[in-house]
Design brief:
This protein is 37% helix and 19% strand. By secondary structure, the protein is an alpha/beta fold. It has a domain at 17-151 and 171-243: Spore Coat Polysaccharide Biosynthesis Protein SpsA, Chain A (Alpha-Beta Complex), CATH 3.90.550. The strands form 2 sheets. The chain has a 5-stranded mixed sheet, with helices on both faces. Strands 5, 6, 7 and 9 form a 4-stranded mixed sheet that branches. Strand 1 (17-23), helix 1 (30-38) and strand 2 form a beta-alpha-beta unit. The longest helix has 25 residues, at 275-299. The chain is globular, with a radius of gyration of 19 Å.
Amino acid sequence: MPRATCLHDADMTHADIAAIVVSYQSAETIDDCLLHLRGAECVGAIRVVDNGSDDGTMEIVQRHATRDPRVHFIANPDNPGFAVACNQGAEDLPHANGTRWLAFVNPDCLVEIRTLAKLRAHAIASGREVLLGADLVDETGERDAAARRRDPDFGAMLASLRRGDTPSGAQLGVPMDDGQALQPVDAVSGALMVMPRELFERLGGFDTGYRLHAEDLDLCRRAREAGALVAVANDVRVVHIRGVSSRSRPLFVEWHKHRGLWRYFGKFEATRRSVFTRCAVFAAIWGRFPFATLRALARK
């Protein structure tokens, strides 16, 4: 496949975007994902970090690597987690290769030819450091609520507990604002993130204390605290086939999702709360765990 250039960006003619893909049991989608990335404009490097897949994922990745010198892979013998693998992919990029932008792309996301170049162009036009997401939709066109999120509202979790409701926490999704090309939000989905490499390195990358889930909320919050804009490019739509790898291990996924939320609370909120409130939040988060697990098992 010929390498796509940046033909629509007269002032940015070299491929300076590095795409990082973390795979786990992703044989169902990784081929399409890499085909799309290899055909995308301005992509100068592709790093695939596999977390111990045994479903044929690595064989597919190896085929792409033999056909395209931009594709390198790291095969972890086990699953150290999403955050660790993302950082591995970023660290594998030599600074001499000129990749000034990082795009973290899930193996079940299918970027179009202009997707990453348009996100980068939005970031540059903003005139400041930006962590950007896109308008994520499933195969039917239904929007993914995780594309636009607010910070977790632990007060709402406690309120649901006091009402005797099933502890579900606050709904984090934010409606799309059609009037804004770049819609500021508290957090975007880790399924697709584009940001300057310099910002990522200054933040220290993803927090590896998270195994799965909430690491994107954490990175977005730290980016905002560092003065960056976190926003969604509403005019950039990407198909995200959700849950392909997580369906095989629903208990594992739900456990780490709740563990991640508790870590997030401890890192950003706990020191400002009373002991009673901290205990109540613990009860709200882990009280939700069995219900969420049962729902996940039922879906499987």
